[in-house]
Amino acid sequence: MAVYTHLGAEDLARLISHYDVGELVSAKGIAEGVSNSNWLVETTGKDGAGARFILTLYERRIDYADLPYFLGLLDHLADKGCPVPRTIHDREGAAFRMEHGKAAALIEFLPGVSPGRPTATQARSIGAVLAQMHLAASDYPLTRANAMDFAASTAILELCGAERLATIDPGLPEMLAHARAAAALDLSGLPQSQTHTDLFPDNVLMRGNAVTGLIDFYFACTGPTLLDLAVTHAAWCFDADNRYRADCGAALVEGYESVRPLEPAERALFADVAKGACLRFVASRAEDWLDTPDDALVTRKDPMQFVKRWRFYDEAGDGLLA
Amino acid sequence: MAVYTHLGAEDLARLISHYDVGELVSAKGIAEGVSNSNWLVETTGKDGAGARFILTLYERRIDYADLPYFLGLLDHLADKGCPVPRTIHDREGAAFRMEHGKAAALIEFLPGVSPGRPTATQARSIGAVLAQMHLAASDYPLTRANAMDFAASTAILELCGAERLATIDPGLPEMLAHARAAAALDLSGLPQSQTHTDLFPDNVLMRGNAVTGLIDFYFACTGPTLLDLAVTHAAWCFDADNRYRADCGAALVEGYESVRPLEPAERALFADVAKGACLRFVASRAEDWLDTPDDALVTRKDPMQFVKRWRFYDEAGDGLLA
């Protein structure tokens, strides 16, 4: 949540000059994105009427070989009318450039704010947009493997080890066996497309009940669309105390199915996939927790939040799509 | 350089509703300001044509009793045509409100970017604007003592202690005696006004050679205008290796004097005040250096930068305004 690389006004102006967007008017480093440096950039625009962009400088966490997949997906989805920011190509047609040894991309700025406490009506909207995205992405020509699939979560939890997991919370070590069970699921028969897989409210811009932007596609990958719905369900439909919000859950699925009805195989696997989705966040948060000193300035996210959500799906998940 | 307080979309929308600025359109936490949380906020505007603001939530470093001074000064200067952001008052006329137990203010957004490597022409511009500000502020009715005056710098260096200062650099302990000499200067006969006292390029917005905004007035105080000129000189007129840039220095003073000629007493004291100004940054940086663990994620600023600049003024300062 920071700007990791300093770019002075002259660096920014030079970078912007490679794009047909007019001249630099202002630039503010923004506190968004954990793996990139981002600036909200204003230019005079092609026509002098002004234009705004997000300039992203990709720090080390992202494999640059994946950038054509991520940035091309934005263009593909925007072309089909999905509310995602378009990639601005430079004068040579490139979607990203190397600057100071790092990849940089200029991306359309979209209005909207991320809901802090989503309502059921907002959950319905995001469900519909998610399904729209899955349909629109189905003919996207590139693919990317899910680096955080259920096998990867299991491997992370195994590397943490039961003993160290227990130092965070005594309820954590048993999640290892559950992660192994999720990794053993056969999802190959489920409908596939390109998926966001990290669609927390923070990664959605809204104005009122309308979705104005899905952002931060840097976990996007090819895989079962059911996983994306399950991640979104787990991310949107619980309150701050991790209690299930039935109205949001029902609205999210209803919104999704208003655009793309679920298949019987998806309904049958929903609870298991939602449990696997929870364990993906349990794993990454537990790893971060153990890697971050207690006195670090960075806020650690509590892995137990998603253990609690896992327990909900374990107990009540089968009834959700019945 | 971060957003310290999380405000969700609903919090932001509610806060904005207390102002006559239309409805919230977007909000991005920005990576500016070390003692506050800041958002770049867009609204539909009073007239529906859109408007932008900086929303600041004041964290613990600022004494809230000083806010009327800081925010009133912005309005006073803006009224007189100085390029500073105006404070937006809420529907009850208040310049700041309490939100989540913290003071919040909505401030005009100004275009421009901070120069990374200022040119002499840019230094001339900032000199002229600084003098304009000093003249415009001279009838501002509030006052605020300089909490970082030369006596305060000396006290900080004394608290650090010669031994610990030597662990940073062997050239640092001798600065203690020089700080005492600066604290003994009699500046009472110099022209006074409201002063910024922290006008680094980071705190100036420019478009090309024109100053579009002076920002971050949270060290502003009542005192000798010469100190403000000296701080600005020390902050703008050295390269990254702390070598004096004579062209910038001459242009800055020339720009200043094009609006407000210096008095003989100011010329006579310039070198000594510039040395004192350097020691103010030596002191705060040395203190931060000793307080910040070696492995902290925060970047520490090297106090020796301003020891080198002090040495320049000690050797050559008397000739600068001759």
From TrEMBL, chains A, B:
Enzyme Commission no: 2.7.1.39
Pfam families, per the entry: APH (PF01636)
Gene3D superfamilies registered for this protein in UniProt: 3.90.1200.10, Phosphorylase Kinase, domain 1
Lineage: superkingdom: Bacteria
GO terms (BP aspect): threonine biosynthetic process
Molecular-function GO term, any one: homoserine kinase activity
Keyword Nucleotide-binding: yes
Pathway: Amino-acid biosynthesis; L-threonine biosynthesis; L-threonine from L-aspartate: step 4/5
Record keywords: Amino-acid biosynthesis, ATP-binding, Kinase, Nucleotide-binding, Threonine biosynthesis, Transferase
Domain Aminoglycoside phosphotransferase stretches: 27-262
Catalytic activity: L-homoserine + ATP = O-phospho-L-homoserine + ADP + H(+)
Homology family: Belongs to the pseudomonas-type ThrB family.
UniProt-listed NCBIfam families: PRK05231.1 (NF003558), thrB_alt (TIGR00938)
Protein name according to UniProt: Homoserine kinase
Species whose genome carries this gene: Erythrobacter dokdonensis DSW-74
